[in-house]
Amino acid sequence: MATETKSAVAAEISSGNWQAGVVGGVVGALAMGGLVLAMNAPTLAVAIPSLYALAPPPNPGLGMVVHVSHGAVLGVAFAAAVGALDPKSTGKVVGLGVAWGVATWVVLAALLMPLWLSAVGSPASPPFPNFAPPSLLWHVVYGGVLGGVYAATADAL
User: Fold this and answer.
1) Would you call 85 helix, strand, or coil by DSSP?
2) For the whole prediction, is pTM greater than 0.90?
């Protein structure tokens, strides 16, 4: 009679857990999306769906779907960064999340998004570059929540 032994290996924060990245990215994008709706609804209703020719007319629900999808994908990239950098504490993971939020603001929101919206002829095309302080706040919240949720769920997923 043969016996089989299985061992479970818990995911560590340093493993780059992509599932925790998706969950953190979705929760972070929802938190950020709530701030965007409260502070500047046209960004979510027109600008974000315009990236894919889904607006006008304004559609905040569709904008939120696109935004949360972006957040999930960026959460997976964040998980890869965590795996590569191997932060040793929850605080460092959250700090890395905030830095990730700032990086996404600079590269994606301030530089790429204005060019992309201009290229597709969006009525919501901002000036280039678009280093808007409210957008920085939104992205810092995204990154902080992403990092916190990632740290809290990496061992469980």
Assistant:
1) helix
2) no
